């Protein structure tokens, strides 16, 4: 099982930027779609963004379109989530996901829990806090 590890979270002000990274030590993400989800305590996990195994197709939740960009570096075996113009409502724990089911266009605004997320494996999460 490929176990990812996130980094890059922190406390920022509204309008600032952060870049999250997801790396797999000792394993490879080659052949897997990759994704980012976020979760606020007591709520389900929200789909945020995904990228297919070739790095060609990307998917985003409506609320982050135009502000967040997912990308992958095959040489570094790392997936990134560039987050610009952050808003207080972006505050959450962000999780990297290996092999998430890629949503159909128009179905990106979903939330899930447990096996309903259809993800191979999760990272431990990184906290992002955006102050107003």
Task: Give a description of the structure.
The chain is an all-beta fold and 132 residues long. The protein is built from no helices and 12 strands. The strands form 2 sheets. Strands 2, 4, 5, 6, 9, 10, 11 and 12 form an 8-stranded mixed beta sheet that branches. It has a 4-stranded antiparallel beta sheet with strand order 1-3-8-7, with no helix packed on it. The chain is globular. The N and C termini lie far apart (39 Å). The model has no long low-confidence stretch (mean pLDDT 95).
Number of helices: 0
SSE order in H/E notation?
A: EEEEEEEEEEEE
Distance between the termini: 39 Å
The low-confidence parts are: none
**Strand-pairing-aware structural class:** mainly beta
- Overall shape: it is globular
Q: Count the strands?
A: 12
Task: Give the helix/strand layout.
Layout: E1 5-7, E2 10-13, E3 18-23, E4 34-39, E5 45-51, E6 58-60, E7 68-73, E8 78-83, E9 92-98, E10 111-112, E11 121-122, E12 126-131
Parallel strand pairs: 2-12
Antiparallel strand pairs: 1-3, 3-8, 4-5, 4-9, 5-6, 5-10, 7-8, 9-11, 9-12
Concise overview:
With 132 residues, the protein is mainly beta.
